[in-house]
Amino acid sequence: MILETIKTSGLSHLSYLVGAGGQAAVIDPRRDCEIYLEKARAAGLEITHILETHRNEDLVSGSPILAAMTGAKVLHGPNPERPVTFAETAREGDTVDIGQLRIEVIETPGHTDDHLAFAIHDTAYPDRAVGVFTGDALFIGDVGRTDFYPDRKREVAGLLYDSLQKLLGLGDQAIVYPAHGAGSVCGSGMAEREFSTIGHERRNNPRLQFSSRDKFIAFKIDEHHYQPPYFRLMERLNMDGADPAPRVLRPKILSLAELRDAGCDHLIDVREPLAFASGHLAGSMSLPTGMISAFAGWFIGEGDRIGLVASDEAQLNAAMEHLVRIGFDRIAGGYVGVVPAAAGGAETGTIAMVGTETVEHRLEEAHEDWTLLDVRDAEERASGAIEGSRHLYAGHLNEGWRELDREHHYTLMCASGMRATVAAGWLASRGFDRLDVYLGSMGAWSHAHG
């Protein structure tokens, strides 16, 4: 038997290849899915089944693509919002045999109505489940979000509670294989580990410590999550079936003139935030490669044409991978070299950084034409905020910039200054020029004020 985890960086997505007796199943494959076929062939396995825990909201599923490559059967849960065109429906108690392994279907609604978990049984030791693929129902240190059905908040939170009880009933020995690790937008309290057991989670997962179903429901209803606009695109693609990813995940290298003539809706600078702040091409926005998965879906629309700016080709390649995995394929190409562009007379911009002393002084002066704009999420803001600041979540600037005054002076802040630079870059690309970033942001403020 083999069981291998395939981690997709940026998205913190975890998919799996499990095989025995010459056969294999893939659980929750990503869009660029050649990796599963390569690993299966290297192990002498034929992929016969593709198992989906649910219709993903945060990435494009590779199931229909991998099925076309292998002839494997795709299984998806009941009660999707509309038919999943490329899959057959799996229901509670159905089983899939992979060599000596038997994979049992468990219906686990709550995160989504169509959610499934897949328990692994070794037929040579049939007593208890060896492990379970929990999808977005149970994570390491957290459980799934339940905010996708706002008109049914109490109902779906209760469904998740009941589903978790099913998973706990598999026994403390069962190894937990979730669909996401720490950093995913699908949960906020995940542990840094990507492995655990039902027993460990039963004793240590904070979301499994509620004394009653009602208390769990009350907690879930009170949670606050953000839903980027691209979630709707992912949901549609993951029911209708997406096209394969581009065969080459390397953008065309463009000259500065070609970049200008490419007709891009967005010029995205994928360098580190401080590099962007020090100097960037006029009209570009800041979206470092490590933050693409979290924020690209707020600012980029379906079908938008994208140009990339980076420090080197490796950065361009990584950026394209992240964008393609969330369905943004119209990448005109990439340009390397902001400094040479500036030396050649290209129009550039900078964003100033300010420290705690400057922010304190501005707050004391209370100038009418200046605002400290906090772009952290609501939970961070609730845990501590600077008196006199205004809150507007970074993602909500996608439309919220229209509420702001271009003539006004804004200092952007977050937890450290990273997201604030992304927010400032977006505003700069919308024509705001009275901007600076509080370097260190809430971390620096807390350090200075004990």
Domains, number: 3
Q: Walk across the major sheet and give the strand order.
A: 1-2-3-4-5-6
State the CATH topology of the largest domain: Metallo-beta-lactamase, Chain A
What is the CATH architecture assignment of the largest domain? 4-Layer Sandwich
- End-to-end gap: 54 Å
Mean pLDDT: 95
User: DSSP strand (E) fraction?
Assistant: 15-25%
Structural class: alpha/beta
Report low-confidence residues grouped into runs of 5 or more: none
Largest sheet: 6 strands, mixed
Helix content, binned percent: 25-40%
What overall form do the CA principal axes indicate? Answer: globular
Number of helices: 16
Report the count of strand segments: 23
**Rounded Rg:** 24 Å
**CATH evolutionary superfamily of the largest domain:** Ribonuclease Z/Hydroxyacylglutathione hydrolase-like
Q: Could you name the CATH class of the largest domain? A: Alpha Beta
